[in-house]
Amino acid sequence: MSLLEYLNMTSPVDIGLDLGTANILLYHQEKGIVLNEPSMVAKERGTGNVIAVGQEALDIHEKVHPGIVTVRPIASGVIADYEATTVMVRTMISKVATRSVFGLRRLIVSVPLGITPVEKRAVLDAAEKVGVKEIAFIAEPVAAAIGLGLDPFAATGHMVIDIGGGTSDIAVITLGGIASGESLRIAGTDFNSRIIQFFRNRYNLAISDYAAENLKLQSVCVYDKDENSTMTVQGMNVGTGLPETITVDSRPLNDSVDHLVSQMIAAIRKHIEALIVKPELAIDILEKGIYLTGGGSQLKGLNKRIQEETTLPVVTGDDPMTDVIKGVGEILADLDHYKPLLAIDYKALVKEDS
């Protein structure tokens, strides 16, 4: 063992966590992004014992097993399964922090704007069980802004729209805070559900979440709805119970998800219009535009659609799915500078609200 390896093992570790409906990402203070896996848990049917998490659970999910049930413990941005979430977070953190003799010193968690005390408690419980000494929370849009290279302390206002798997956060960030913000319950998994429903209703074909995700990213276009391509889709015929492969046009699929896009853009427009009482911020956004981030923002044509319907320029990064966790990494690297943005140790708050 080298001296450097020994020092790494005998030094406390700081970890960043982006806990999303679709994916969980971890950032190691020395190694960068070390984990990006599905937010999924596999449990024994009946006992409820957790047998796998993350990618391993997704692999099980794609197979049919009568004794195992797979769940996404976070649904629509809300912790739907408290125990499963606790086990998932604890297991994921343990994967990347087992080599440190002194364990975890600090955990910084990015959270959506609408997080509740109960949800904070689930993360806190998981953190305590892996020996975290200090936990801090950062709002996801603020972390995304930092990951995009923006200065959250600047007097200039920046509008960030973070489209995740379960929620979409809209925030105007300035002077080290959120001047206005809201959390929408329209996000990436809603598109997946609509795609699954579309194939079941139109073609009597049951497809998996994984297939729906691939179709969403590769075939759906929400800007030029008349854009048409053929796609081959595999699933299970609901009538016969047999596997089936079909080739279909993409245009009807584009139409099927359009109302979700319209609802999302209507909420964005409403938020922009509300800034009329803050003209200085409105001018900043008019000049700088909208910063679009999150895995759900990768929907083909979404940036152009938002730009067209809001008349504002839309800026996206190279890898929208990792903007938040990269921002958390920047915070870990310069904690003293970013500390005013953090809510440190929610233990007192949780006890007050319980």
Task: Describe what you observe in this structure.
This protein has 354 residues and is an alpha+beta fold. The chain folds into two domains: 172 residues, Nucleotidyltransferase, domain 5 (2-Layer Sandwich), CATH 3.30.420; 168 residues, 2-Layer Sandwich (Nucleotidyltransferase, domain 5). It contains 13 helices and 19 strands. The strands form five sheets. The protein has a six-stranded mixed β-sheet with strand order 3-2-1-9-10-19, sandwiched between helices. A five-stranded mixed β-sheet has the order 13-12-11-17-18, with helices on both faces. Strands 5-4-6 form a three-stranded antiparallel β-sheet. The longest helix has 23 residues. It is flat. The chain starts with a helix and ends with a helix. The N terminus and C terminus are likely disordered.
Q: How would you describe this structure in keywords?
A:
single chain; 354 residues; alpha+beta; Nucleotidyltransferase, domain 5; 2 domains; six-stranded mixed β-sheet; five-stranded mixed β-sheet; 13 helices; 40% helix; 27% strand; flat; disordered N terminus; disordered C terminus
